[in-house]
Amino acid sequence: MEIVSLEKDKSKTIKxxxxxxxxxxxxxxxxxxxxxxxxxxxxxxxxKTSMGTIFEKxxxxxxxxxxxxxxDIVYTHSEYNQIVNQYAHYMLSLGIKKxxxxxxxxxxxxxxxxxxxxxxxxxxxxxIINSLHRGPVLKHSLDIIPSVKHFIIGEELVEAFxxxxxxxxxxxxxxxxxxxxxxxGRVPDGYQDWNQxxxxxxxxxxxxxxxxxxxxxxxxxxxxxxxxxxxASISIQGKWITTYNIFGKVMLRPNDKDTxxxxxxxxxxxxxxxxxxxxSSGGAAVAIRxxxxxxxxxxxxxxxxATSFIYIGELCRYIMDLPPNPDDGHNTIxxxxxxxxxxxxxxxxxSRFNIRAVYEFYGASEANIxxxxxxxxxxxxxxxxxxxTIVKYDLEAEAPITDENGFMQRIETGEAGLLLGRISDxxxxxxxxxxxxxxxxxxxxxxxxxxxxxxxxxxVRDIGFKHTQFVDRIGDTFRWxxxxxxxxxxxxAVNSFEQISQAAVYxxxxxxxxxxxxxxAIIAYEPPERLNLDGLYTSLVSRLPSYAVPAFIxxxxxxESTATMKIKKVNLKKEGFDxxxxxxxxxVCLPGSKGYVPLTEEIHQKIVNGEYxx
Length: 614
Known about the structure:
Layout: H1 16-26, H2 30-44, H3 51-61, E1 66-70, E2 73-76, H4 77-93, E3 101-105, H5 111-122, E4 125-128, H6 135-143, E5 148-154, H7 158-165, E6 175-179, E7 192-193, H8 194-198, E8 217-223, E9 231-236, H9 237-252, E10 259-262, H10 269-280, E11 285-288, H11 297-304, E12 308-312, H12 313-320, E13 335-339, H13 346-352, E14 357-362, E15 371-372, E16 388-391, E17 393-394, E18 399-400, E19 416-422, H14 435-439, E20 442-444, E21 452-464, E22 467-473, E23 477-480, E24 483-486, H15 487-495, E25 500-508, E26 517-524, H16 533-543, E27 552-556, H17 570-575, E28 586-588, E29 597-598, H18 601-608
Parallel strand pairs: 1-11, 3-4, 3-5, 4-8, 5-6, 6-7, 10-11, 10-12, 12-13, 13-14, 26-27
Antiparallel strand pairs: 1-2, 8-9, 14-15, 16-19, 17-18, 19-21, 20-21, 21-22, 23-24, 25-26, 27-28, 28-29
């Protein structure tokens, strides 16, 4: 989404006539919200209730009802809990204890949920490595998890892991476990077959579950943050339980006959903290698939008999791009929940697929604040239950605007600015495994000496009645394909190619898409006609996840820089890839291709017209 003006725009504000009917419709849900809030507060006070407790209760209350649907496999709540117990008992036999970390590197499959359930019961922490990471990025992600001795590697990713294994900072007593995907592969040398090891373990609930509280960390979720390589954000069980109450019991309110379709990878925060706990709240099933497919989306909805699904903006665009079908509005979906639905397609999306409720939310794996569109209003992130503020921001200087005393200034209704969340006992900032990276997300003395705030790195608009609307991301991160892309990471990959002297990476806007696609402006040692584009593409694909490989390359002879030699990207972002107004050679990697070609005016027009779908 293009960075828009931060000036006041009253046309984007909510009017009283809009919010009153929504409040009236919401009133029957108030008792559930009060109960959920009280339950969460009780848990925070130290009562030993946890994710494991919930799984064990569901295993009794909804014993024979589906808990997980995957391909043609169904696990009931009872079966899920039993497998989780086998995992937990085996981990305990290995000496894994409270606070210890394990790493899992798998494609999207039910075993991820088994591992999370197990560590939640014994107090350990699981690091879910992004299955798209390769090379230096994968090595970095594996190295930043502290004190890891146990690595569980899926059959489908052993080759990728082996490529970096020799360069990892491993302890002498590291253990490697192989998790078959098809059950037909030979166990590689140096690995133990996880399924064989847990097969005969106790299926009874471990005693450790009773000792767990909401404060226990249970998962590391990776995020690009604002600069540098991926960071591992630490999440506590309380975050999962809070969304279990709010997204589940108050908003979606599923029952044991419902299925929530989660087409996102389980290492994604939305799947982990929203989809799964929301389904668990009513004994519903969560349906997952190995990899998202737009063409199979509605077939999956029918196959799994899904009554709701979780989305990100890009997913909505993909299914909106499907050819219109007379049956588009005839489906089993009642409501959807997610984040990033484009403002300009929100109402068309609801109308085409006959969706009654869109529960948009805002949050991040590491954030201490979140917004929820509880009232099912159109085109809003909703409201935030904990203290936050929005401050004036200078796009050119890439910094908040301060007054004569050095304090930041709050915006007015209708204006947009930088979103900050107040850090307190009520809304703690747990941070990353890297303390220095955590410090970068904290702003102090914002309005007065001694106050402390979380910097979201996002621009949002105050649209009135405590509601906000997303505008864009700032800094050195842009969002593409539902992933945060670090320009620092991509620049390092581009600069590693022998023909490149210097690179500046940024996000470019393609009409009709969500987020920003990667674009790299380069200064090369060779003239354009001698630039090895095939070699550059091959190099980038080997070093970066697919979503981070720049779609556009712009050849330049010099960069505009600041006095401190920082490349100015503002104009580069504004110019994008418009070849009609740019004299520099530009190259593009078109969808489905495996290399860069010159960007002509004809190709540019087809991209703008949507004939090429990125």
